[in-house]
Amino acid sequence: MTIEWWLTYLLTTSILSLSPGSGAINTMSTGISHGYRGAVASISGLQVGLSLHIMLVGIGLGALFSQSLLAFEILKWAGAAYLVWLGIQQWRSAGAIDLNAVAKAMPRRRLFKRAVLVNLTNPKSIVFLAALFPQFILPHQPQAMQYLVLGVTTVVVDIIVMIGYATLATRISAWIKGPHQMKLLNRIFGGLFIAVGALLASARRIA
C-alpha cells in the first residue's frame, strides 16, 4: 500500500467517523452522565466492537455476512431493539447531577459492555467495512498486512474522534446547573438513541 493510497483511506475514514451515529451518541451521553472516565470506558468498548467487525471482514466473513439476508435482518433488529431500549432507559433517567453517584450506579465495566454491544449489533458497520476495505486493497501486495494497516487506521481515527465527542460532552456537563437541565439532556439523548434505532430498523441490505 502506497502512502498516497493510505492518505486517501485516512481522509475517507476520518469523514465517516465524524458523521454522528450510535457510537457518537453513546459517547456523548455517557460523557455527560458519567464524566470523562466513563466516556473513556465507553470508547474502549466501542473499539472492541469495531475491531471484531474488522477481524470478521479480514478473514472473509464480512463478505459472506453482507450476502446473507437472514443474518443481516437478525442483527439489524437486535441492534435496533437494543438502541431503542437504551433510549427508553435514558429518557426515563432521573435528572441527577452528581456524577460520582451516577458512576457508582453504573460501573465503568457495564459502560464498556454496553458500548461493545452498541457497535457489535450494528450490521451496517460490518457490511460497510466489507464494501470499503477491498477498494483500498492492492492485489499485488500482501493482503494480510494491508488489512492490518486499514484496521489499525480505522480504530485509531475512531478513538480520536470519540475522544473529541467525549471532551465536548464533559464541557456540556459543566454547564448543567440543576436536575431539570440534566433531565432535558437525558431526554434529548434518549430521543436520539430511539431515532438511530428506528433508522437502523429501516435499513436495507445493500444488494
Automatic annotation (TrEMBL):
InterPro entries: LeuE-type. Keywords: Cell membrane, Membrane, Transmembrane, Transmembrane helix. Its main location: membrane. Pfam families: LysE. The keyword Cell membrane applies. One of its GO terms (molecular function) is homoserine transmembrane transporter activity. GO terms for cellular component: plasma membrane. It comes from the Bacteria. The chain crosses the membrane at residues 39-65, 116-138, 144-168, 188-206. It is found in: Cell membrane. It is a multi-pass membrane protein. Belongs to the Rht family. This is Homoserine/homoserine lactone efflux protein. It comes from Erwinia sorbitola. The lineage of its organism: Bacteria, Pseudomonadati, Pseudomonadota, Gammaproteobacteria, Enterobacterales.
